[in-house]
Design goal:
heterodimer, A: alpha/beta, Rossmann fold, seven-stranded mixed β-sheet, seven-stranded parallel β-sheet, 35 strands, 34% helix, disordered C terminus, B: alpha/beta, six-stranded parallel β-sheet, 22 strands, globular
């Protein structure tokens, strides 16, 4: 009996993956007889084909990455060549890197079992060397450990900085193998850090005359070789044909029902309903949640439901949670209870998706797509490990990614498309590691090969007195070892806490850009189904203080973004558009916010923030020109429809590059082409980290694939008129955007019912069948000023402009402006300045700048005129007095410019 | 040199200008209480008549040195400043006593603290025309060697129950024998790792270590050890001095007519007892008139007080034996910069110490990150030294264990190096502890790991005597250098139990004597002219204009990216219009 049958209506798709029989290969030639004996003792007469291939090629000296499935026996594959080397040479050592402490503990247990059956294995001392390891055990491992299991953070902060000390130096001198498990987790900022860490490791091992062979395992991604080669800076071979048998699987796609108008029921609630039923039916289940908090909610709800089964029988002990933050003992307890069958279900974060052995499970529940296909498959792989068909349920959230999967379930099963992205060359990350490298071994010219921006970095460090030139090599002269100055796991520590002042609870943490957008003063912050109002954003203390509220509106930040292209590294055609990749400067200013009514999204008003929130980011970006006719039509809409193009593009690009929200962002801007001088509207995707981490570079490489995917997202979305999943917003016109998006590929006629370019928004058809279209806004939203406002509100306009954008500093010198038709006339000091302003290029740039905040007609121009000094002075005094008066009275005078 | 010249030099010496070639005195310090002898002409004439070679050499000495050599005082205390030529004086004195006073070499003892020092004096004696026959120098050597020679005389060793053919246990063999007894006799001994220390304490009447509740078999072990040595016809090092003293006190044994002691400040009580026994008959009557004693040393270089040396040793000796005091105030070894800094480290408490050389180059004081980085830096420096320069280079440190990373780095750079026992191979850099470097000198000296907690050792904190000794030890280390002295300390001194700051004593050195920059090579000419104003291009930042160029960096204002600074060494800038690798 399947308790899930009652939920059949939620299943929108079902895919079967047939079982796969085992394929075998011969033991590699020359395998030590002791290893053969140990294999036999474990009942292994033959190796799976991938294990045999991996061991053979590793013994031939190849650096390898293996990408076979979960539970396919990857550990044994890399243990064979490592143990062979350790048996042959009593001095040599092997270092194993795991991304988490829990995983290294688990892997150690497995290794010790193998060693126990290996003749001579008792001489191969093994252990975990991490932050929890006591000093005596650390010393034992340094002095005698042959298999040392550690993590990148430890390598960074403990191993490399101490390489010269006795014990450490012996390990590096004799390092024969470096094994890197779960390599796909080393991507984005973490991966870029680890790549630099590996360069530091290679310097140190080279210093001691060793050159370890590298063996990696990875979940399935589209570019394992590329990732390995980027991480380790050397060629790799690939073993991917999985010879292990696999149980059949059925994957169900679970769409929660729509409740409360626009919203679907939350996956945490859905999971909390289903899990007790599975436990009651004695189905061994693992339930994956996306956060620690979700884990606790599901656990509590499930336990509550199980407290009185069949009239009083308490079965709540049959379910437990597993997540980071638990002690190693607690985690081990859960693990062994699972293995022993004492637990029926475990609720887990992705902590259990890595290769921790938890035995045979039957059902996998996922509260939301885990973000990458790699994670998805790892989680699915936790069930049905030993022969029985497993069932998996992917519960889809209201996120663009989940809803995209709802539209295209086969994307998950289709060809590999996820590419792990790192950028070892990121300047900030390189800087962090070059400093550490200098404190490990002096920097020499040879290090340019490892750190391409060494010249510039050394220049900075020399100026700061952190390195010292000793006959052309650079020695660390700073204080403590700089490896402690950064975390491998975060790009920066510039994070804010969101604290509920009524309960004192920290709801979440977020980075600065997200804080400025979502937790500015008076923002309505939605968290876990609750509304909170931000009372105070403390920029010094890095805290946003919020309190629970219950209101009929949510807020949308008014963010002015100005983009400056710093250089163009690559230009090419992508369908009809011109695609460029290069460095951009992104100035982001949150100046105010809109209040929008829930459900009908009606604009209830606009407020300026008392303090502008500015961020500046210099990073990499990729931008695509939008065809003119598309711009004309989109530009006729009051809502910024370019957002509707960027939204699916960004969703697809994030999927492709395994990027998280903060890794890759999108916007649009006006770009003046160097070649023609023409200004074109462009869709921009840019990295979210200073200097970029390769995300937009990867998007550039696969832009066609991204465009196709994004179009499919629009086409397949089940909504009629555009929704947060496909175009990002209910207010945008889906058919207009569909036409616009298709126009990126080829020139096509606009749909006949669409009004021609230049038409007003009033004529837009009522698209949303439920709620009426938004009535004309009380305040123009994106552009708070009209052209008519300009003379009177010139100062406000200047304040609303991105402060660092080119031209703003100049405009601030202009005290007065007046209107002449659609021309805005700036009053300037001299003929020279007038000529300069009226230079065609300058005038256009200024017009574009002003148009960012002023709703201006298409023929809007900027001109200039000179005034006599006296008149100017008088004007200035008058304006000053008037402003002062305005300040005092709070009134505005219906007094135009002179 | 004519007598007139000599007279002029003597007058100059009285005015405190007696050092040869002195250009300026780093410090006049306390005036010498023992002025050069006024009238040496008669003695010089005698020397010229009997030993022309010696005379030819004597005229090259400065008046202080000359006075010490020519004096006919039987008991002389020569307080020699560092680098003031005391070995020269000692050698001349030996030859003078031999050739002019007619004492056979075989009837002289020269007691030193190392075999090497004894050998050097012997070499000098030969060079000065002393005729040396086999066996003549049997009393030239360390205290142990001379005591052993006395004990080997017919009938001498018998008092101790040994034969004249006794064997000598070195430190390792001694411990092995003790272990053997403990094992064989099944003795219960606590703190075995500190056995040597405990036996020493036992001799000094402190048999218990720490808070030991019950005594163990240590007394029994001591007795069994003595018994076993007698049975096997063995002495250990301590026995040699002890029984040598007893033999002399008993009136037996050979008794050279004249003796000299080098590095007198380092004598411990047992060695002083040996000297006393040599000077006096067993009945205690003084025999000074018939015997000469010449002790040379520098109280500022007393660094063995842990072995029983005493800071007041000179004063006590001079009072006890009625010694005439002579001084050698002129340092011929080091530049003024080094001497002034060394004086400063002693807080100026080093009496009169006059430099004779020019100011020289400032000391270099550097901070390195950790021992590994320090070692790599040294390797990098020494790579550029010629084989001759390396032979004249020493790296000195406080603790033996500090040598390991340095030795590893030098090995990796294929730079030959040797510790205390291996000064022969050409081009070998010396790696020595401060203690081990005593008595040696080099053109270039690197003092490494000079952190608070290493110099002075953390264990000496709060003990003024111990701290002063550490101060003297640093003084000794610094004054090993003739021309160049570089001192470094560590930001991360790690396992050495030190603090991450430089030695407190280094703060005493005036800043004007120190520079903290690494010497720059003559700038290698850049392929392109990085002169201010030049237009350049960079692969990432595009075009820009050079704002400034200094020794190792160039600062560029890029048209789009603003101001950036680059290291010149990595030359990633090209002239505008050219990629860096084309330029």
């Amino acid at each position: 009996m399947n308790p899930l049958e009652t939920y059949a209506t939620r299943i929108i798709a079902r895919r079967e993956i047939p079982p796969r029989p085992a394929r075998f290969g011969d033991l590699p030639q020359g395998l030590d007889p002791r290893l053969q004996e140990a294999l036999r003792a474990r009942g292994i007469e033959r190796l799976y084909s991938h294990q045999a291939e991996f061991a053979r090629r590793a013994l031939e000296g190849e650096n390898l990455v293996i990408t076979t499935g979960t539970a396919s026996g990857k550990t044994l594959a890399y243990l064979l060549p490592v143990l062979q080397a350790l048996l042959e040479d009593p001095a040599c050592r092997a270092l194993f890197l795991y991304p988490t402490k829990a995983l290294s503990q688990d892997q150690l247990r497995g290794m010790l079992e193998v060693l126990a059956e290996l003749p001579g294995g008792e001489t191969l001392e093994a252990g975990v060397y991490d932050g929890d390891t006591p000093p005596l055990e650390r010393r034992r491992l340094r002095d005698r450990g042959r298999l040392i299991l550690t993590n990148p953070d430890m390598l960074n902060a403990a191993w490399l900085p101490n390489h010269g000390r006795r014990g450490f130096s012996q390990v590096f001198r004799n390092l024969r193998y470096l094994v890197v498990d779960e390599m796909h987790t080393y991507r984005g900022a973490f991966g870029s850090h680890v790549a630099n860490l590996m360069r530091r490791l290679s310097r140190v091992t080279a210093h001691y005359g060793s050159s370890p062979q590298i063996l990696c395992s990875s979940a399935t991604i589209a570019n394992p070789i590329e990732l390995a080669e980027a991480l380790f800076d050397r060629p790799f071979g690939h073993v991917e044909e999985d010879g292990s048998p696999s149980a059949g699987r059925v994957i169900h796609f679970w769409q929660p029902p729509v409740v409360d108008g626009d919203f679907r029921r939350g996956v945490v609630q859905e999971m909390s309903d289903v899990l007790p039923e599975l436990v009651a039916a004695r189905r061994r289940t693992i339930a994956f949640c996306r956060s620690r908090k979700d884990t606790e909610v599901v656990l509590k709800e499930t336990r509550d439901a199980l407290r009185s089964v069949d009239g009083g029988h308490d079965e709540s002990r049959l379910v437990a949670a597993y997540r980071g933050g638990y002690t190693p003992e607690e985690r081990r307890g859960v693990q062994s209870d699972l293995l022993a069958g004492k637990l029926m279900a475990v609720v887990s974060t992705n902590a259990l998706e890595l290769g921790v052995d938890i035995g045979q499970l039957e059902v996998v529940l996922q509260a939301g797509f885990p973000g990458t296909r790699a994670s998805f498959w790892q989680q699915i792989g936790r069930a049905g490990r030993r022969g029985r068909t497993a069932e998996a349920y992917l519960m889809l959230r209201m996120s663009p990614m989940d809803q995209f999967i709802a539209m295209d379930p086969d994307w998950l099963l289709g060809r590999k498309s996820e590419r792990a992205v790192i950028d070892p060359k990121n300047l900030m990350i390189q800087l962090a590691h070059v400093r550490a490298a200098a404190a490990e071994l002096p920097l020499s010219l040879d290090d340019l090969e490892l750190f391409p921006d060494l010249g510039e970095i050394v220049g900075i460090l020399t100026e700061a007195g952190e390195v010292r030139d000793v006959f052309g090599s650079f020695h660390w002269a700073g204080d403590a070892h700089p490896a402690g100055d950064f975390s491998l796991r975060n790009m920066d520590r510039d994070r804010f806490k969101i604290v509920n002042v009524e309960s004192g609870e920290t709801l979440t943490e977020m980075d600065r850009p997200q804080t400025y957008h979502e937790a500015h003063w008076r923002a309505v912050y939605l968290h876990d189904g609750m509304q909170y109002m931000v009372d105070e954003l403390d920029l010094v203390g890095h805290v946003a203080k919020v309190r629970p509220v219950d209101q009929n509106y949510y807020t949308e930040p008014d963010v002015r973004t100005s983009i400056e292209v710093l250089n163009v590294q690559k230009t090419r055609d992508a369908f009809r558009g011109r695609l460029r990749f290069g460095d951009v400067r992104v100035d982001d200013v949150t100046v105010g916010y809109k209040m929008l009514q829930f459900h009908n999204h009606q604009n209830l008003g606009y407020e300026m923030l008392p303090e502008r929130l500015e961020t500046r980011l210099e990073t990499e970006g990729v931008w695509l020109t939008v065809p003119e006719e598309v711009m004309q039509l989109l530009g006729s809409r009051e809502d910024d429809h370019l957002r509707g193009l960027i939204h699916p593009l960004l969703a697809r690009a994030r999927l492709l590059s395994m990027a998280e929200g903060a890794d890759l962002r999108g916007t649009s801007f006006h770009y003046t082409e160097e070649e023609t001088g023409a200004t074109r509207t462009c869709l921009l995707l840019h990295d979210g980290h200073p200097g970029g981490l390769g995300f937009s570079q990867k998007v550039e490489e696969f832009m066609e694939e991204v465009l196709h995917g994004a179009l499919r997202l629009l086409e397949r979305c089940r909504c009629r008129d555009g929704c947060p999943a496909c175009v990002g917003d209910w207010r945008l016109e889906k058919d207009l955007l569909l036409w616009a998006f298709r126009s990126l590929f080829e020139e096509i006629e606009p749909p006949r019912h669409l009004p021609p370019a230049g038409g007003g928004a009033e004529q837009a058809p009522v698209l949303n069948s439920g709620a009426p279209r938004t009535s004309p806004p009380l305040v123009e939203t994106n552009k708070p000023f009209t052209l008519q406002d300009t003379p009177r509100r010139w100062r406000d306009i200047l304040r609303a402009l991105p402060p660092r954008a080119r031209g703003v500093a100049f405009l601030r010198q202009v005290d007065a402006v007046r209107l002449r038709g659609a021309d805005l006339v700036l009053q300037v000091e001299s003929e020279g300045v007038k000529a300069w302003v009226e230079n065609e290029k300058t005038a256009r740039a200024l017009a574009q700048l002003i148009a960012q905040v002023v709703k201006a007609p298409a023929n809007f121009r900027v001109r200039a005129e000179t005034l006599s000094r006296a008149k100017d002075e008088a004007e200035r005094t008058r304006a000053k007095l008037k402003r002062r008066h305005d300040d005092l009275t709070g009134e505005t005078h219906a007094d135009g410019a002179s | 040199m004519g007598l007139r010249d000599l007279g002029r030099r003597l007058k100059a010496a009285r005015r405190g200008e007696g050092c040869k070639g002195a250009r300026r005195a780093p410090d006049e310090g306390a005036g010498a209480n023992a002025e050069p002898l006024a009238d040496l002409t008669e003695r010089m004439a005698r020397v010229e008549a009997t030993a022309p070679n010696l005379h030819a050499s004597l005229v090259r000495l400065d008046p202080y040195q000359l006075s010490a050599v020519l004096t006919d005082e039987p008991v002389v205390s020569l307080r020699a400043q560092v680098g003031s030529g005391k070995t020269t004086v000692l050698a001349h004195k030996v030859v003078l006593m031999h050739r002019v006073e007619g004492i056979p070499l075989a009837d002289m003892a020269v007691l030193t603290f190392t075999q090497k020092a004894a050998a050097e004096i012997a070499d000098r004696v030969r060079a000065l025309g002393g005729e040396v026959r086999a066996g003549d120098l049997r009393y030239f050597g360390t205290f142990h060697a001379v005591a052993a020679a006395i004990l080997r005389e017919e009938g001498a060793a018998e008092v101790s129950g040994r034969s004249p053919r006794f064997g000598i246990l070195d430190e390792e063999e001694r411990l092995a024998l003790l272990d053997e007894i403990v094992e064989k006799d099944g003795l219960s001994i606590k703190y075995r790792a500190r056995l040597a220390m405990r036996l020493e304490a036992l001799e000094q009447g402190r048999p218990l270590v720490g808070a030991m509740k019950y005594p163990d078999d240590i007394v029994l072990l001591r007795d069994r050890y003595e018994e076993e040595k007698r049975r096997r016809d063995l002495f250990d090092f301590d026995d040699l001095i002890l029984w040598g003293t007893r033999v002399l006190e008993g009136g037996a044994g050979a008794r050279p007519r004249w003796a000299a002691v080098d590095e007198f400040q380092d004598c411990d009580p047992s060695q002083l007892a040996f000297l006393r026994a040599w000077m006096r008959r067993g009945d205690g009557a003084k025999e000074v008139k018939h015997r000469g004693l010449f002790v040379v040393g520098d109280p500022h270089q007393l660094v063995y007080s842990f072995r029983g040396g005493d800071a007041r040793i000179f004063e006590d000796f001079e009072a006890d034996f009625g010694a005439r005091v002579f001084r050698l105030p002129c340092n011929y070894r080091s530049t003024d910069a080094i001497l002034l800094a060394a004086r400063a480290v002693l807080g100026g408490r080093c009496g009169r110490l006059t430099g004779t050389r020019d100011a020289g180059t400032p000391l270099r004081l550097l901070r390195h990150h950790d021992p590994t980085q320090e070692a790599l830096y040294l390797a990098r420096r020494l790579e550029r030294y010629s084989s001759e320069e390396r032979r004249e280079t020493a790296i000195l440190f406080r603790k033996r264990e500090q040598a390991r990373p340095i030795a590893e780095a030098l090995d990796a750079a294929a730079i030959p190096h040797a510790g205390i026992h291996g000064e022969v191979a050409a081009g070998t850099v010396s790696l020595l502890t401060f203690h081990g470097a005593k008595g040696l000198e080099f053109d270039t000296v690197f003092l490494v790991g000079v952190n608070d907690g290493l110099v002075p050792l953390a264990s000496s904190f709060g003990d003024p005597e111990a701290e002063s000794e550490e101060q003297r030890l640093l003084f000794v280390g610094m004054t090993r250098a003739r021309d160049r002295l570089e001192i470094s300390y560590l930001a991360d001194p790690r396992d050495f139990g030190a603090r991450p700051e430089k030695s407190r004593f280094l703060d005493l050195i005036p800043e004007s004597l120190i520079e903290d920059e690494i010497p720059h090579l003559d700038a290698e000419p850049s392929a392109i002219g990085h002169s201010p104003g030049a237009r350049v291009a960079h692969s990432r930042y595009g075009a820009g204009r050079v704002l400034a160029v200094n020794a190792s960096t160039v600062t560029v204002h890029f048209d789009l990216h603003g101001v950036k600074t680059f290291s010149l060494a990595f030359g990633d800038l090209g002239l505008e219009g050219l990629a860096a690798d084309e330029s």
